[in-house]
Amino acid sequence: MPAMHSQAPDRVEQVRRFNRFYTRRIGVLQDHLLGSPFSLTEMRVLYELSSRGAARALDLRTELGLNAGYLSRVIATLESQGLLEKTPHPDDARSQLLALTALGRQTFQPFEEASRQEVLAMLSPLPEAQQQALVDAMDRIGQLLDTRPADVVLRAPQPGDMGLVVHKQARLYAQEYGWNQEFEALLADIVGKYLREFDPTSDRCWIADRQGEMVGSVFVVRHDATTAKLRMLYVDATARGLGVGRRLVEEAIGFARAAGYTRMVLWTNKVLLDAVRLYEKTGFSLVEEEHHHSFGSDQTSQVWARDLA
């Protein structure tokens, strides 16, 4: 079990305070949602069936995180009201498909429209920029709390990404290792040089993107005529365990080979244990170590290298 950080109790109370505010704001605590005769769970079942067209009870249970017995009672209630019906599953004789009846669709539609109007009424008083900030924040909360794997794509950098690369790495290493502004200055120098001297035949950067959020990055630059240098590998804390770092490194190695390099080197610090393990797993060997004082603390820098032939 992870250790409880000193800030954790404050964070718990902040989350609880937000939950109390938001449930009050959207009316979840009312006995019936949107002035309807339905509970929140009943309305969610109606919504899922309206959106999907048809679904198995297992699909609904997984999506809504409900106890099987409780969901069965909800389904039975809606069925007794003539709002949903069961039909045999065409591909699985052991399962049944649930779908709204004509009465169910007719009954649900006004409440779907009322829900849309309620959200619109909540957003309308806010300026356009604040509306976008609000929905972006909601989307970010969903990404952080969703334990289901989301696809991560590797893409070329876009305007504005380089500043974000520096920002994210400087902030992460300050939080996790206490590194000071010297490290941020180093990052800015590396990125600035990359932008000024970029040559598409020998240099490349990849951004790891998950649903529009930068969760990783890496650079390859020319060290000399036969040697590529791997720089600034970064994986966001929210994307660890998804294989993002390995994908970035392997992509960099593949590009370096295709560009005609025969060797790749990198510089890191011994304290970055996850990165060091990754370099070992992807074929790099430690060739040099040096003790130094940088970024506000004592460090042991390392040079790693591997052949690309």
From TrEMBL:
<dbReference type="GO" id="GO:0008080">
    <property type="term" value="F:N-acetyltransferase activity"/>
</dbReference>
<dbReference type="Pfam" id="PF01047">
    <property type="entry name" value="MarR"/>
</dbReference>
<dbReference type="InterPro" id="IPR016181">
    <property type="entry name" value="Acyl_CoA_acyltransferase"/>
</dbReference>
<dbReference type="GO" id="GO:0003677">
    <property type="term" value="F:DNA binding"/>
</dbReference>
<dbReference type="Pfam" id="PF00583">
    <property type="entry name" value="Acetyltransf_1"/>
</dbReference>
<feature type="domain" description="HTH marR-type">
    <location>
        <begin position="8"/>
        <end position="143"/>
    </location>
</feature>
<dbReference type="InterPro" id="IPR036388">
    <property type="entry name" value="WH-like_DNA-bd_sf"/>
</dbReference>
<keyword id="KW-0238">DNA-binding</keyword>
<dbReference type="InterPro" id="IPR000835">
    <property type="entry name" value="HTH_MarR-typ"/>
</dbReference>
<protein>
    <submittedName>
        <fullName>DNA-binding transcriptional regulator, MarR family</fullName>
    </submittedName>
</protein>
<dbReference type="InterPro" id="IPR000182">
    <property type="entry name" value="GNAT_dom"/>
</dbReference>
<dbReference type="GO" id="GO:0003700">
    <property type="term" value="F:DNA-binding transcription factor activity"/>
</dbReference>
<dbReference type="InterPro" id="IPR036390">
    <property type="entry name" value="WH_DNA-bd_sf"/>
</dbReference>
<feature type="domain" description="N-acetyltransferase">
    <location>
        <begin position="165"/>
        <end position="309"/>
    </location>
</feature>
<keyword id="KW-0808">Transferase</keyword>
<dbReference type="InterPro" id="IPR050769">
    <property type="entry name" value="NAT_camello-type"/>
</dbReference>
